[in-house]
Amino acid sequence: MSRGLFIIVSAPSGAGKSSLCQRLRQVYPEIKFSVSYTSRPPRPNEVNGKDYYFISRKEFQKRIDQGEFIEWVENYGHLYGSSKKVMEEFVRDGKDLLLDIEPRGAKKVKQEFKGGVYVFILPPSRSELLKRLEKRGHETDDVIQKRFKQAESELKEISWYDYVIFNKDLETAVNQLISIYVAEKCKRRRLQNEIKKFKE
Q: 10 and 120 in contact (C-beta within 8 Å)?
């Protein structure tokens, strides 16, 4: 069986990463989404098991100690992490997996798993990013400035990503993400088993 393809999508807060990931999965529902764990409380309309697995900080720490996360980080006082078991099972079983994680976590995944596709989403400009953060409405000015400052540091990580998408227009950006997925699925090295069968 061919190994599954996993796509890591990263972006500063407010770049539109979640919307792009949702649209990709609407077009290709066979792509499974790796639901992250978090110690923060759910926001309005967030569903446990769909948006995140919401667990206590104590439970999160217990899972860290047991080595259950392939990556985990602390952001704004809350912990976030991705299950190593889920990652291993999907890749082994030949299923495609989408991970929505920030650069520090993405780098840890890259160190442990080979063959991933790394995509960085950017807003049209830094000023537009700040506008989008301010429009969210549910965060204080202090948190907005912290997110903007973190975005500045995350920009330094772009150099090791495979692809960059500027989210100037949602439809264009969605089509670019879809194109990346389709092109990666057609790479020769991912089709070795199928090519071997064809030759036989």
A: yes
| pLDDT digit string, tens, across residues 42-81 | 988 899 999 899 999 999 999 999 999 999 999 878 999 9
pLDDT of residue 159: 93
Question: Over pLDDT 70: what percentage of the chain?
Answer: 97
Distances (CA, A) of 37 to 18, 79, 128, 162, 166: 16, 8, 29, 26, 28
Task: Write 151-159 long-range contacts (CB < 8 A, 24+).
Answer: 151/12, 151/13, 151/14, 151/126, 154/10, 154/12, 154/102, 154/103, 155/12, 157/10, 157/103, 157/106, 157/107, 157/120, 158/120, 158/122
The class level of CATH for 6-34+95-199 reads alpha beta
Q: Is residue 157's pLDDT more than 70? A: yes
| Nearest one of 39, 49, 118, 95 to 72, comparing CA atoms | 39
- Tokens 């807060």 map to which residue? 13
